[in-house]
Amino acid sequence: MRKKGFIVADRDQLLELTALFKTVIKRFRSEWAKGIEDDMTVTQFRLLQMLKTEGQKKTMDIAEALMVTPGAVTGMADKLIASGLVVRKKSELDRRVAYLAITEKGKERAEELLDKQIQTVGSLFRDFPDEDIEHLKRIYNNLLRNLGEKE
């Protein structure tokens, strides 16, 4: 079992892990983009799914959940609104507050994209035995825990 912290000999491994991780993310995004005719990004899809499953949300809450800036949410929302997938709604209690909500068209598109994501991820992991999937989930959770310690 590895002790906490890294020694100098681990530098090459860390560099390789970083390069592999970046490559996996880049290629995943590329696979995602194949067959998406409206240039919907993974993050825009996640925003749509969030609105579909959780209902209307404030920009700040979306930004926090997606780990992006409020400005990034505004930019994504503008594109999704222009496509008729999302609408802005003013709060009835505080007119300064606006919510984003998914439209019926947005719900339909979110379902189509969910099917696409399942196909994409399924094809990436098709040859993995269940034990490898469980091991990968454990590793991701450990990474997230370690990243949470830095906040």
Automatic annotation (TrEMBL):
Name listed for the protein in its UniProt record: MarR family transcriptional regulator
GO biological process, one term: response to stress
SMART domains: HTH_DTXR (SM00529), HTH_MARR (SM00347)
InterPro entries given in the database record: HTH_MarR-typ, Iron_dep_repressor, MarR/SlyA-like, Tscrpt_reg_MarR-type_CS, WH-like_DNA-bd_sf, WH_DNA-bd_sf
Phylogenetic lineage: Bacteria, Bacillati, Bacillota, Bacilli, Bacillales
Keywords from the UniProt entry: DNA-binding, Transcription, Transcription regulation
Organism annotation: Paenibacillus sambharensis
Highest taxon above the source species: Bacteria
An MF annotation (GO) of this entry: DNA-binding transcription factor activity
